[in-house]
Amino acid sequence: MSHHHPPAVSWHEARELLHDAASALTPTLSTEALPLQATIGRYVAEDLTARMPVPHYSSSAMDGYAVAGAPPWRLISPDYPEDARTNVHRLAVPITAGEATPILTGGLLPEGTEAIVREEHSHRYEGAGALGSGIHYLDMAEGYTAPKPGTDIRYAGAELSPGAILSSRGDLMTAQRAAFLGVNGFDELPVLKNVPVRCAFTGNEVITFGMPSPGQVRDAFGGFLEVSLAAAGCEVRPSARLADIAEEFHTFVTTSTARILIFTGGSSTSGVDMVRQTLTDIGAEYIFESVQVRPGHPALAAKIPAPAEGMNAGQERLVLGLPGNPLAAYTALYSYLPVILAGLRGLPIPALDRAELATDIPPLRKRSQHRLMPVRVSEGKAYPLDALASHMLSGLAQATHFALVDATGQRAGTHAILVPVF
Description:
It is an enzyme of class 2 (transferase). By secondary structure, the protein is α/β, with parallel strands linked by helices. It is about 15% helix and about 25% strand.
């Protein structure tokens, strides 16, 4: 690896290069089957299809009566058991024209049913005289007419047919998606195993508790960055805190078996920043050395060989060097980690949403192609937040996304790419 520094790549190019590099690595990700609830936050390993029609049986959409023919209807009731735990939704008696039977929402549709009459639209009465005494009837309440065939019936297969795709490979399993699969009969799901990631936090000036004195800074990464990694689908290995000593960096890189190594700080070109020196010493191959975006310009990425022990030969690892300034570091993490993970999983680069800018964005004074700024997205508009300098976190603390905007300035009403905060 040469000591010169090639021109910075664009933000879009950095993502494409990372995705290509991750996609080309020897695959190591396998799958595992987990109980449904344990899959939340994991990624589906294969397409999942409906094993039955959705809904899987025809039922009532309302409390009321299943009816056949025109009113009035003679009421036919099933034999209700005394056991209160009995599933009355399965109790159904067949009906023919001129008959009705009580039914609950979700109740199995009786044979012969043509429509459902809602409870509040109906009127029950007992027959009178020698022929009708003790027999109950149903008619429409005043002001209502008999329902058309099919009214308030949920027909089997109306939502989905057997074989329909319920979830695709690479989908993030949310609680809502898991609930959907659960009602479709899934108890276990195949998911991708999480990608092993390990962090190294650098900087002799960093303290981990208490009030920082002049010349010190409070840690903005340890215990926080790992939460973002876990949310992205990583197996978070124990983090390391490195002094600005070349030997510690070399040991971390040459012994860590995680597939992705992340550094915070230490990636610029000054004499005390050890990441580049370490990568040079071990013969790493840069993917990019800097990016035309502010903040986050000093971010770098490289491929390094597997360590001598703990991994199979040929299993290259990726290094992602984040800037030391916290806002710049988080912009780089959110920009590039999802792209790496997608490549390792054999998935395309994640699609990004756009939103209309709520205010004008002035030009960036520093030379760059783009800027990433924390925004709060509400009702389809992106509202830029204050504190945009690379060391500031007060804007990020309120942000839902970063917006990628033109460094030459951008007008309100134009659209910007959104990078989710996770």
